[in-house]
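SAMPLE LOG
Freezer: B-3
Tube label: C17
Construct: single chain, 308 aa
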Amino acid sequence: MFRYSYNNKRYHTLDYFYKTTFNEKICKLCFNIGCSCPNVDGTKGFGGCIYCKNGSGDFAGDKNVSLKEQYNSQRKIMERKWPNASFIAYFQAGSNTYGDLEYLKKCYLEVLSFEKIKGLYIATRCDCLSADCLEFLKLLNKKTNLVIELGLQTIHDSTSKLINRGHTQEEFIEAFKMLKANDIKVVVHIINGLPYENKEMMIETAKFLNDLKVDGIKIHMLAILKDTKMAKLYEKEKFPLLTKEEYIDIVISQLEYLDPNIVIHRVTTDPNINDLIAPKWLVKKTVLLNDIDKEMKRRNTYQGIKNI
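STRUCTURE (predicted):
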């Protein structure tokens, strides 16, 4: 029997979470403050993760313009569709707790001063949380709705080495526990379809995060992008990519093991179409989301069914 309903979805969507938390429409505005990454600048390694292109979010703002300009331009776009919306400020590009702390503080506080900003989402890595940075995040957490997004991608060390993550599972767990000890919400990124991982390995990653009691998860499908080391590996080894049907099956299986309170921030990837080599089915995002819904209904399943 279908037990849960999140705006007619069978998993706990971010949109449902926003509506029940803020009682209004919430949109994300993406900010770019020019942060680098220790896996790019030589501190941990060079070149970054092999799937990453330019170490930047595809939809982040332009780092060459002011934060106010980034805010105004994106706000205008959002308000054409949702005139009464409020906003979450999303620091997306690079590792956004990596750099001069005084500069980071200035950026966070400036954006918080903008009209209708209801919270900060800060994307970073587990190895970019210094003691001083953590102290400031504790203060931010008291001022606003703060979420830290940590990339993990997989719990399997062999895959992590292959994709050049540059940190260990132990470092991730330590950072996660530090954040949670200070009541800071944590969303974790994972990628399905990484080279040579099978369905069971991907489900193990989801189970691991469920056991950690993360606040939210972003589920991505591996996108092979032009001018990346992953593209070169794919061309050389021709490792199999998930079909759309296989991906849907794996996502649903992962959702079944996740506690219903875990917010599912995404279940697919938004690649830049001009950069995408494969899989081409990622281009039709709405179709994929609808197909996940249809298959969950056909199976009469829902998030957390195997967690109860």
